[in-house]
Every structure is written in structure tokens, then in C-alpha cells.
Amino acid sequence: MKKILVVGGAGYIGSHMVKMLLAKGYEVVTLDNLENGFQDAVVGGEFVLGDLADRNCLNDLFTANKFAGVMHFASHIQVGESVQNPGKYYQNNVANTLNLLDAMVANNVNAFIFSSTAAIFGEPEYTPIDEKHPKQPINPYGLSKWMIEQVLADFDKAHGLKSCCLRYFNAAGADPEGELGERHDPETHLIPLVLQAASGRRKNITVFGKDYDTPDGTCIRDYIHITDLCQAHLLALEKLMDGADSMAFNLGNGQGFSVQEVIDVAREVTGQEIPVVESERREGDPARLVADSSLARKRLGWKPEYAELSTIIKHAWLWEKNFFCGEGGKQETA
Ligand code: UFG
Prior knowledge:
Blueprint (H helix, E strand, L loop, with lengths): L2 E5 L4 H12 L3 E6 L13 E4 L5 H10 L4 E4 L6 H6 L1 H21 L4 E7 L22 H20 L2 E7 L1 E3 L17 H10 L5 E4 L11 E2 L1 E3 H16 L5 E5 L5 E2 H12 L5 E4 L8 E2 L4 H7 L8 H17 L9
Parallel strand pairs: 1-2, 1-4, 2-3, 4-5, 5-6, 6-11, 7-10, 8-13, 9-14
Antiparallel strand pairs: 9-12
Helix pairs in contact: 1-7, 2-4, 4-5, 6-8, 6-10, 8-10
The structure holds uridine-5'-diphosphate-4-deoxy-4-fluoro-alpha-D-galactose.
The site of uridine-5'-diphosphate-4-deoxy-4-fluoro-alpha-D-galactose (UFG) has 21 residues, from helix 6 and strand 8.
């Protein structure tokens, strides 16, 4: 049985990945410092409380385990915060990731899956965005991810470390079985905030800008179901472990939905009114971000299973109701 290290396995995407790996029969070790993750989101395998800044912790971990591959989800992800506090982003997302890569090289572990982002492209020059699109990040978050993508190219040349960079567009939804979901604190993402407004945990949803150059004036994004996202990770990991060369893919549904459309579908799915407040544009939001994921479909044989926006919202709603609002649920006011 192959053993996989999932760094950040207690977070939103990492926890869904751990569950999928276990279901596929892999042995899993989760490393997480629980700064943003939750230990009870790690549904199985071994859990190690530790930080990528701690090289001794990494040495111990790699000495005690023979990993067939490493998946890295432990990044800071807030664009606005990265502008205010760039050091935090370069320290964690870049310097700490280097510690992890060094530990892999020192222990001859050669398969690395890296959570990258659409933010590496900056303001789109065209859409849908394919892998060839210029990389011109406009904030430290995007730049920190693009730096590591370039570091990985050099580690491949120097050490033969094979990697797959997966550039997420808008990861959304929740485990279809209702066991896991999104628990960011603070929550900044559109779909969970819309559903908090539907469940009554917040009074309304603020729409950031209705004057974009889009059909209804609100921003268009490409929402990809968390299960489909994890499926792409699994296919990429297995390809690398089978000896494939380093790769990079854009991951989205290839279909854009506006903020207004998300709210409209959420109203249908939840049967709730969802009060809306209009406000100014949020700084740094491009009008339209849609992925061209045809390369991932071709090279990985990846086929999104939950491409409908209504399904993504339905699963997120199940989580919102059961985890936050259900009997014995975590009653929190947003
Ligand atoms: N939005 C609102 N109101 C809110 C929250 C969001 O109108 O309360 C809008 C945003 O302005 C944006 C859309 O909803 O137009 C989606 O916003 P999210 O914050 O959910 O997601 P982003 O597209 O801003 O961010 C995603 C990832 C980031 C990544 C970025 C790439 O979550 O990690 O794409 O640009 F950096």
C-alpha cells in the first residue's frame, strides 16, 4: 500500500483529498499546524501536528515514513491579506514550501502535487485561460504560488523531483456524503457566504460591484466541485508515481457563472430569499476568470462529475445545514 503525505490535510481541500485517498486504499499521513485547519476534518490515517517551518519535524517525518508522494495544501490563501502582509505569504507559501522540497530531495521522494491558483495569471489577457496564458500575478498571494511553480521546474532539472501544479479557479461545494465541507475562518468565499445568508447565520450577502463589463454587471467565476478537484489531484499523483514528467494544469469547469447567477441558483436550491446588499467593487477582482481545462481532460483523462452549479450549491447547502445549523451542529454567528 503506497503511503502519501498530505500537508494541510486538515483544511478545506486537503481534508476532502485525505478522504478520497483513504477510499482508494492509500495509506495517508496528514501534517497540519491547525492554524487554519481542523483536526476533526481528518477522517482517517495518521495525523501529525507540525509546521513546515520546523525542519526537524520534517526530518523526523521523512525518516519515520517512506512516502510514495507528497501533496501540499498548506498555504495562506487570502489575496487582500497578502497585499497587507506580504511577508506572511512569502514566509509560509515560499520559504516553508522550500523546506518541504528539501526534505523530499534528501529522502528521495520524487512525486509532488502542488496547489496553485488562477491568481498566477493576474488580469486575464483572454478567456478561457489556458496553460499558455502569460503569468503576471498582481498580488503577493499569486506571486508566491508562481515563484514555487518556477522553483519546481528547477528542482526537476537539478534533482529529478517530478511535480504537478494544479491551478485552481474557484474551488467550491462539499463532500457529497455530507461528512466534510468548507470551514474557513474568516470566510471570504462567495458560495459559503451566500449560504450563510440563506440559513440566517448572516443577515445578507454583499455583492461587490454591479458595474463590470459582463451581461448582468457582476463578476464571472469558474466554480469547480471539490470532489472533481480532488479527482484531478489523484489522477495527477498516480501519473507522477507511474513515472510521468512534471506537468501543470488549469482546473475549472470551463463555464463561468456571475455572482448574480450564483445567488439566483442558491435561492432555487435553498428555497430562501437571500437578501442582497450592493457595494463597491472589491479591489483586485478581475471581471471574468474562466479556465480552459481541456489539457487536464486530455492528459489526465479527467472528467468533472459534478459540473452543474446547482449540484455544487446543493452539496455546500447540505454542509451548511448539517454542520453549522443542524441538531448538535456548530451554532455560530458569522
Ligand atoms: N464576492 C461577492 N461578495 C462576497 C464575496 C465574494 O460579491 O461576499 C464576489 C467576488 O467579488 C468575486 C466572486 O464573488 O467576484 C468570487 O469571490 P471569491 O472570494 O469566492 O473567490 P475569488 O474569485 O476572489 O478567489 C478565488 C480563490 C482565491 C484565488 C482567486 C484567483 O478563492 O484563492 O480565485 O484570482 F486567489
